[in-house]
Amino acid sequence: MEGSRDLDINSAYAAMASATKPIGTSFFEPQHVHEVAEMFNMALTGDPHSGAFRQRPFCMANNTFVVPPLCFAEDSTLCMAEQVRVGMPINLLSAGQAGASSPAALAGSLVQALAECLAALTCVNLMSPGHPCIMGMWPFVSDLRTGAMSSGSGEEAVLNAASAQLLNWIGLPSGVAAMVTDNDMLGSINRTIHGSEVDDAMLSVEVIRDVGNGFGHFLGHQQTLDLMLTEYIFPIIGDRNSPEDWKDAGATSAPQRAHKYVNDVLAGPLPSHIPADIDAAIRERYDIQLPSQTAA
Question: Where are the beta strands (DSSP E) in 19-153?
Answer without folding.
Answer: 23-25, 59-64, 66-67, 71-72, 90-93, 97-98, 133-136, 140-141
